[in-house]
Design a protein that fits this description.
Layout: H1 5-23, H2 39-52, H3 65-74, H4 80-93, H5 97-103, H6 105-112, H7 118-135, H8 144-147, H9 155-164, H10 175-184, H11 192-202, H12 211-221
Helix pairs in contact: 5-7, 6-7, 10-12
């Protein structure tokens, strides 16, 4: 027997109501909105960093601009501690590009073999040293274009050298900054280039000389990837805590 029109309508209403109820379940979690800090909050972040550590410095140990450049090249995918351990004896015998070329790639490898990718890094250091001697009078260049023309030097390495050696207001974005800048609410980008661009726009000029060191050290020792030490954090009152 054919189903009545009233019965069919009732079923449709009940079915629709069930679907509507599923959409409106009160216990379903909502997507957490990504929070960006306001300009005033950003100032509070860097004021706190400045109060905690007024003059942060690179943890790479090097006696001059050339050896610092070598250290930064060696630090790719390696810790500063491991680089310092390898370069401490190296820099006692090599502190100029000429001395590095005289040392030769095989002996250089003996010094740095405890560092990951040391074969490739040794070749980059030797070629970079040759380029400095032949093209720049053995001096480390002070512009991004010239630095990036050197073997083993990309944008991040150039930014580090320009900031640490020449005091330029750059923002080298390493894995720590790429991770914590969105967490704090300073940037929303997902690539080093985008995060660098956002940080350069949002961080007031008065903080820029030390900004990247504050962020790197904060990510290395406090705002760690797996177990951030929020209870010890000097910016906990203002941090957006995105993703936490």
């Amino acid at each position: 027997m054919a189903e009545s029109s009233r019965a069919r309508t009732s079923k449709v209403r009940r079915s629709s109501g069930t679907r509507e109820q599923k959409k409106q379940k009160p216990d379903e979690p909502c997507a957490v909105k990504f929070k960006m800090l306001s300009p005033a909050e950003i100032c509070r972040v860097f004021d706190a960093f400045q109060a905690a550590d007024p003059s942060p410095k690179s943890e790479l140990v090097a006696p001059n601009a050339y050896t610092f450049l070598v250290s930064v090249i060696l630090s790719a995918q390696a810790t500063d501690k491991s680089v310092n351990k390898a370069t401490e004896p190296l820099f006692k015998v090599v502190d100029t590009p000429e001395k590095m070329l005289a040392l030769g790639v095989e002996k250089l490898e003996d010094y740095i073999k405890s560092i990951g990718l040391y074969h490739a890094k040794a070749r980059h250091v030797m070629e970079m040293s040759r380029q400095l001697v032949e093209n720049f009078g053995s001096a480390v260049p002070d512009t991004r274009e010239k630095l990036e023309s050197l073997s083993g030097v990309g944008r991040k390495t150039a930014n580090v050298v320009l900031n640490v050696i020449y005091g330029q207001k750059t923002m080298p974005v390493d894995t720590h900054i790429l991770r914590i800048a969105p967490r704090i609410g300073l940037a929303a980008g997902k690539t080093p280039e985008k995060v660098e661009e956002e940080l350069l726009k949002c961080i007031p000029d008065k903080y820029m000389n030390h900004a990247h060191h504050w962020l790197i050290l904060h990510g290395r020792y406090v705002c760690t990837a797996r177990s951030p030490k929020c209870e010890e954090c000097c910016i906990q009152a203002v941090c957006a805590r995105n993703g936490l």
